[in-house]
Structures are given as C-alpha cells and as structure tokens.
Amino acid sequence: MENFTFHNPTKIIFGKNTIPRVGEEIKEYGLKKVLFLYGRGSIKRNGVYDQVVESLKKNGIEWIEVSGVKPNPVLSKVHEAIEKAREANVEGILAVGGGSVIDSAKAIAAGFYYEGDIWDAFTGDYEIEKALPIFTILTISATGSEMNGNAVVTNEKTNQKYAFSSEHVYPKVSIIDPTVQFTLPKEQTVYGAVDAIAHVLEYYFDGSVCLVHDRISESLVKTIMEMTEILIEDPENYEARANLAWSATLALNGLTDAGSKGGDWASHAIEHSLSALYDIAHGAGLAIVFPAWMKYVYKENMGKFERFSKEIFGLEGSGENLVLSGIE
Ligand code: NZQ
Ligand code: ZN
C-alpha cells in the first residue's frame, strides 16, 4: 500500500428534490452574484433550469448566464465566459450540467484572476493560485468532476485536449439529484458508465498492491456494470440511477487513488487525443482504447488481470485464457 494524503473539500448534497437547495447554499457562502453556466439546452427541456432560477430568485442571488458549452468543451467558450464574468463582476460560478460544463467552470473560475491566457494552466506554464468559488448541479454521472479538482478543455486552434488539476477548483458544493438523469439518452448513460469504470481501472492496474483499494475498486466496477444493465432497459429506475451516480462520483474523487501508485492514465491520454481530433464522446473513445490497452499490457501484471477476471466476471481458471476472457 502506498502512502497517501486524502483531502476532499467538496460538500455533496445527494438525492431527490435537492436542486432547490442551491440558492440557499450560495447565499450561505456569502455570494450575491454568480455566473450561471450550462450546455446546449437539456436543462431547459427537463426542468432543471426552472428549478435553479426559482431557487436563485428566492434567495436573492443575482446571476448572468453563459450557455452553449459543448461536449469536449472548447477554450474559446472559456475565454468568452471569463470576459463576461469580469464585466459583470461575479463572485462565483454555478455550473449546471456534466463534466464539460463543470470543467469549463473550473477554467473560468481560475482564469478570472489570471492576467495571461488560462490555457497556460493546461500546458503547465501557470500554477493556479486562486479561483472563484464553484457550485455545481450534476446532470450526468461520468467524470467525477463534481467532486475533484480536474478540468479538461480542448484548444480548438491547436487541436490539443489537455487537463489541469488544482486544489483551488474543487467545487464548494455539488448537488446530485439522480432523477434529472432520467432524460439522458441511452448512449450517454453508457458512455458515463464506461468513463467511471475506466477511472477505477486506471488506478487498479497501475501496479499497486493494496487489498482495501482492490476491493473498493471491484465493488464500484461491479455496481456500475449492474446498474447500467438495468438502466438500458429502465432509464427511470431511481435506485439504479442513484447507485450509478454515487459510484461514478467515488470513482474519481480521490477514494480510488488512495493507496495506489497514482494511476496509469495512458488510456485517458490516448482518448483525449482521439476526442480532440474526432470530437467523439469521451466514454465512447475509452470503450475502444481501454480494452486494447489491457490486451497490450496484461503480461506485465498477470496476477492482477487474473484477479480482475475472477472478481468482476466470476470466471475460473488461470493464465492467458482467463485473462483474455475477462478482457473480452
Ligand atoms: O449540452 P447539454 O444540452 O447539457 O447536453 C449534454 C451533452 O450533450 C447531455 N446531457 C447532460 N445531462 C443531461 C443530458 N441530456 C439529457 N438529460 C440530462 N440530464 O449529455 C451530453 C454529454 O455531456 P458532457 O458534459 O460532455 O458529458 P460528461 O459528463 O461525460 O463530460 C465529458 C467531458 O469531461 C471530460 C471529458 O474528456 C469530456 O471532455 N473529463 C473530465 C474529467 C474530470 N474533470 O475529472 C475526467 C474525465 O476523464 C474526462 O476526461
Ligand atoms: Zn475519463
């Protein structure tokens, strides 16, 4: 088991009818005006937008809106929002959506205080020192961005999709109401599940040896797989949505990192290049890359790959046959 520091400052409010609490949380934090950031309209179609607006009004929070954040979010939108945030002198960001919206919010929050181009944080030329406080309402479970300090954005001029990680951009509060995910298209649910599984496995297969870590990881992967099977048939199954949502958050909030060697992340790096070049969904890209990566590396760590086949799929036997059946 490796040494680790585990510190996650994000407050999670989880469950049915939790979105109306957002205004109160922002007010308690002492903010009077926020930038309300969202995507391309799903929140207007499923009622989330109305719930947010009502709660902000009720709590006397002013806001400006920036919408149109696209999946595989782009730097130009981040720049546009930083400008607007500065003009309106907002005190925080409210991100309502999935990883694309929340990641953009993190770049905006840090970029607000930085005189240069916030892209410098992605290339490693600027270490983030300060950011606006971020509040999120999650509408698709996948990335764990609602409870971590990572952001991934594409610079569409250079076709680079890069990430940064900073303790300053952990959301202060994230609200996860699984019922709002009833409206997700089937393939988005599956992409999200694949992404969450990949996060767990990046750590699982990094060569670390830690039993509690292995067992937490296996439990998350099995839960995500079972819940996804249910949701493909029954997208409004609350228990399945809730279990999937919390598993996906735990998959990349530091829990599966603790005791590991920090993760492999080769599959993620390859996928980020694919989604930068071809604009495919991150989870779809991982579904192609991750099994191929497993086939490429399994001989380096036969014992762990055998364990994976046995624990996750209940397969028996040993050696290459067992490992390859698990991967396939
Ligand atoms: O734009 P809208 O209209 O909101 O539609 C979105 C979008 O088209 C839709 N959607 C979201 N919630 C919905 C809904 N449709 C109906 N009902 C709802 N409740 O779903 C589509 C995908 O949204 P997006 O935010 O792109 O998905 P996801 O959460 O998978 O985020 C993917 C991005 O996050 C990055 C990925 O690379 C990708 O750019 N990642 C971020 C990470 C992090 N911050 O830690 C780690 C990950 O490994 C990943 O790299
Ligand atoms: Zn991912």
Task: Tell me what you see in this structure.
With 328 residues, the chain is an alpha/beta fold. 49% of the residues lie in helices and 13% in strands. The protein has a 6-stranded parallel beta sheet, with helices on both faces. A two-stranded antiparallel ribbon has the order 6-7. A hairpin with a 4-residue loop joins β6 and β7. Zinc ion binds next to α7. 5,6-dihydroxy-NADP binds next to α5, β6 and α7.
Mean pLDDT: 97
Q: Give me the strand/helix succession.
A: EHEHHEHEHHEEEEHHHHHHH
Radius of gyration: 20 Å
* SS summary, helix count: 13
Q: What small molecules accompany the polymer chains?
A: 5,6-dihydroxy-NADP, zinc ion
The spatial strand order of the largest sheet comes to 1-8-5-4-2-3
The separation of the N and C termini measures 29 Å
Percent helix, as a range, is 40-55%
Largest sheet composition: 6 strands, parallel
Note the beta-strand portion: 5-15%
Number of strands: 8
Question: How would you briefly describe this protein structure?
Answer:
By secondary structure, this protein is of the alpha/beta class. The protein has helices at residues 22-28, 42-45, 48-58, 75-88, 99-111, 119-123, 186-204, 211-233, 238-251, 266-278, 282-297, 302-313, 319-327, and strands at residues 11-14, 33-38, 62-66, 92-97, 134-138, 150-155, 160-165, 173-176.
